[in-house]
Amino acid sequence: MKNRDINTEDLIRSLSRDVPRVPRGALGRRLALGMVAGALVTALLVAGVLGIRPDLHSAMHGFSFWMKWTYTASLGIGSVMAVLRLARPNPQSLRALWWLSVPVLLLAGIGIGELASTPSRAWLAMWLGASWKVCPWLVLTLAMPIFIGLLWSFRRMAPTRLREAGAVAGLAAGAWAATIYCLHCPEVSAIFVLTWYSLGILLAAGIGALLGPKLMRW
Amino acid sequence: MQASEAQLKAWMIAGLGGDATAHELLLRALVPLLTAFYRRRMRDADSDVEDLVQETLISVHGKRATYDRDRPFTAWLYAIARYRLIDHVRRRRLSVPIEDVETILMTEGFEEALAARMDVEALLSTLSPKQARAIRDTQVEGLSIAEAAQQAGLGESDVKVSVHRGLKALAARLRGESH
Hints:
The structure holds 2 protein chains of 2 kinds. Chain A has one domain (about 25-215). Chain A is about 70% helix and about 0% strand. Chain A is built from 9 helices and no strands. Chain A has helices spanning about 1-15, 25-50, 55-60, 65-85, 100-115, 125-130, 135-155, 160-180, 190-215. Chain A is elongated, with a radius of gyration of 21 Å. Chain A starts with a helix and ends with a helix. The model of chain A has no long low-confidence stretch (mean pLDDT about 90). By secondary structure, chain B is mainly alpha-helical. Chain B has 2 domains: about 5-95, RNA polymerase sigma factor, region 2, helix turn helix motif (Rna Polymerase Sigma Factor, Chain: A, Orthogonal Bundle), CATH 1.10.1740; about 100-180, Winged helix-like DNA-binding domain superfamily/Winged helix DNA-binding domain (Arc Repressor Mutant, subunit A, Orthogonal Bundle). Chain B is built from 9 helices and no strands. Chain B has helices at about 5-15, 20-40, 45-60, 75-95, 100-105, 110-125, 130-140, 145-150, 155-179. In chain B, α1 crosses α2 (about 20-40), α2 (about 20-40) packs antiparallel against α3 (about 45-60) and α7 packs across α8 (about 145-150). Chain B is elongated, with a radius of gyration of 20 Å. Chains A and B meet through α1 and α2 of A and α2, α3 and α4 of B.
């Protein structure tokens, strides 16, 4: 017993030798660092391997480009808020995650408007676009660097709900990957984005949920 | 004397500001708290308790950045302590089969401890739940009145009265039975 007491005492003394200042917002900065580093890799992949869409400049004056960006970026912002909470051992309520349904519903509303103003024989082509087979997989692949960046950030975090933490980290990675993928993807219809982008993002979240308990342990 | 939430939080925040002395005071004050926490949940495993306390101190130190200065310190602390406990139990389950305490007592030849324990439980079950808990916490588990009160969410005098009345009732019952 005596011996062990001394060990704890020694431990405390050695831990107290290394007490760097931790500024407010250190946690957010660490998460941002991991995400931005991952997003840079994703952006390089989009620019170098897939190629930026040649009409990007004119597309940026159109509605559908901003519709896509607003959708993916709002999902990205919402899920990063949840990531920030789940990085702490005693996370605050996650009920605010319901707000993520707002962009989904808005996009669905736009999609219904599109369908209403399109002859029904063109619906299938509009829904599948030119890239439905690759879009979800590309979003998922592009999410990996960001997810890895987040895992790096999480090595300093203390998540206790590992599955949820993994899921929202995957969701954030997927949403930001989709946002970057918009620089390449020329699809214009809301129902395309709503289906295939969302599918890629959800796949990323699902893989995050699977990996969280294994990779985020501490 | 158990350090208060306000005191622990003050040390934690000073430590986050780079004050190594405050950080050391904090870690030192956490040792009895964590020891009580784990001992209450890991009976008959003192070396595990010691390990868990040390692992938790390392986590508290290493994960300082995840503490939010605007929220209670002890909620953060016990969230970490609970995680360490779950992790510990899960790891042990993977490598070492754990029998329940009753089985261990039997195989190790401590049936009388088992019987004594059952007698206490049988006696306590004749009391009101509140009295039984107060006695179990203070007399069996060895918590202080303050700790027991905090755990049960009651006032200290309430716990004291419960212990007093409960013991009196038990004494009366034992006298009645032995006569």
